Amino acid sequence: MNISFAPSQACRAFRGAIVTKPDKSTRNRRVRVAANAMMSMPSTSTASVEGFGDHCFKGAVAKKYLSKYGETDKLLTDVSWPSQPGKADIVAKAVLDWAVDNGASVYCHWFQPMASSGVRHGLSAQVHQTMFEFDKDGKPFFKFTGEALLQGETDGSSYPNGGMRATHCAGGYLSIDPLSPIFLREDTVFIPAAFVSYNGDALDEKTPLHRAVEAMSNEGTRLLKLLGYEVDGLINNIGLEQEIFLVPRHAFYRRPDLQFTGRTIMGKASARGQEMSDHYMAPISRATTAFDCMRQIQMECFKMGIPLKTRHREVAPNQYEFAPLFGNVINQTDQNLMVMQIFEEVASENGLAALLQEKPFAGINGSGKHNNWSIGTTDGVNLLNPKQINAASKNVEIFPIVMAAIVSAIDKHGDLMRLAIASPGNDFRLGAMEAPPAVISTYLGDDMTNYLMAFMDNGNVEAYVPSKKKLAFGANSISEIEVPAEDRNRTSPFPYGGARFEFRAAGSSQNVSLINTVLNTITAEAFAIVADRIEAGETPTAVARDLLKAHSKVIFNGNGYDPEWPDTAVEKGIWRIDSGVEAIKKFTDSKNTELFEKMGVFSPRECDARRAILLEHYIGTVEMEALTMVDMINQHVIPSCKKAELGFVKKLEDAVKTLTKAVDEMHAAADESEAASLARVLRLDTMIKIREVCDEAEGLCPPSLWTLASYSELLFLDTYPEGDLLL
């Protein structure tokens, strides 16, 4: 008998929480195991790439519907189409036809409020509106206008706004983002949009990113013209490597900390962790629903035009990674937010919970989102690829000048780069032998470093040709391969990788808009500085050599995990900010507000607001964690200790008083700066000491009396005895 389920059918068949009582569920377990075995049998259908992007309004999909109204998909590639008379009505009609054909009758403007990481599902906001009206007889008919497509209005006061909005002046206004395609999911059409106040203050993550990319493009285009290479504009391309944990949902429901905060604030380490590196790139086992979950995630993204090209297991138990292809930073950021939302929803349909927080478990690796960053011309020439830029421009000076500008930006504005990754979850991750330290340096490799140093010393410019080497395997039957001369450096926060930089310290739960807003802003300023000096009469190579002499100290090709490196970096004058809270406070340093205002990215008022919002987000995160710890001690740890007759009760009762007092002190602080500093001490000192008591108690308590799910239950889908209850 050849029986198979479509992935979506199979997932719906087994969705929901898992009951773990031994009697009836034991019989159910056998049924579910048998069903999953059938589900996992090879499908008789042929693999196909048909259907990619059917739920994304661009390219051939858009062309089919726009042609009915005398237009082609090329209309959407011109970002000015929303302001062209009559074009919005045409696009709206085509979108409506496409929506109806795909079973959708609802639309929304989809936007990105600030301070969403770790707390807001999907990191986005939306209000769903039906795409129909009523005739005089009360009969509904489909209708969607250009005006409805282009803009919307909502209440802006209830989102984090840093004092830029209030209930009595609450308007928030939305405008379509033409750089990010309209997409469809289930019965809803999503229109990516920017979100500002009545006065034009940015209330979202997207608007400043647009401003920063435009600043980088304007200044970069100006610089390239001075170097004899005229281009229409520049774009920022990124590729995001997204890491997650997938844990059993029945165990997730027995962890209030995971449900409310995304991380375990207590929990004894299991006897097995990642010591043997046996999870890294191991087979994605069919013995659990993780494989079907990952396939379903890829399938849903495929239809929406999101190519999740890579999937694999990561270092920690139950840790996985997806990575897409490179693309425009605006679109890639939007797609990543939707991917994270799909993770959480599809996981729940497979009896799993997706954990996006940077450090859900102590003692094993946390999760990042490596932000691979490059700059290209609008016709596809990568400025960070020496072969491409040399061939297109016929000017070998451009590449070292661009690299010198970027190196100077890293050295000058390492504080802003550190600020951009100061998510609450990164408190526990940076520098922990899994992510780069809080020192902002760049790795270029010996070849590139020697090339730039020679250029700096003597001014001679030759084409940079990265060296290659042959790698033999020691067996005649296995062919030699050619590899880069430079190895990977996983310990650098911002290494150069041949045609891109990789910001490795980005947090897994973050919206990367601020990260790329910072990178594009500091690069725009660096390009402007070089262009200004050239226009003032200096030669391009002299300017670049001067920048390298002043800023090459930020280049570090050594081991970033060396315990001596952070102190050495400080001695060299390289930015080191261990505290995420102190990094956030740098937002309003005069150097930074002047930079953002000069580049047209943030006004001083917006800088003040962002600083306050990020600090309040940190404070709120720590408060939730502390209060959750209070509840877990009172409702779980103390009762378990009493039943087991363990002698921890007095310590635990005192711990509750300590936590409660610390939260009260945060509330009594003079301002968010003081409260955030208190919160950091509470989180990284007080709560860790209290956790040690809870974890010691768990280690002595019989499992039958411990009511919280253990690390063993949470982390080992493949081997833990209750793992097959997921099936």
Condensed summary:
With 727 residues, this protein is of the alpha+beta class.
Describe this structure in words.
- With 727 residues, the protein is α+β, with helices and mostly antiparallel strands.
- It contains 24 helices and 17 strands.
- The strands form four sheets. Strands 9, 10, 11, 12, 13, 14 and 17 form a seven-stranded antiparallel beta sheet that branches. Strands 1, 2, 5, 6, 7 and 8 form a six-stranded mixed beta sheet that branches.
- A hairpin with a 2-residue loop joins strand 7 and strand 8.
- Helix 21 (604-644) runs parallel beside helix 23.
- The radius of gyration is 27 Å and the shape is globular.
- The model is unreliable at 1-41 and 723-727 (pLDDT under 50).
List keywords for this structure.
six-stranded mixed β-sheet, 727 residues, seven-stranded antiparallel β-sheet, disordered N terminus, 24 helices, alpha+beta
Strand content: 5-15%
Mean pLDDT: 90
Contiguous runs where pLDDT drops below 50 for at least 5 residues: 1-41, 723-727
Helix amount: 40-55%
Rg calculated over all Cα atoms: 27 Å
Number of helical segments with 4 or more residues: 24
Biggest beta sheet attributes: 7 strands, antiparallel
Shape assignment? globular
Q: How many β-strand runs?
A: 17
- Secondary structure class reads alpha+beta
End-to-end separation: 21 Å
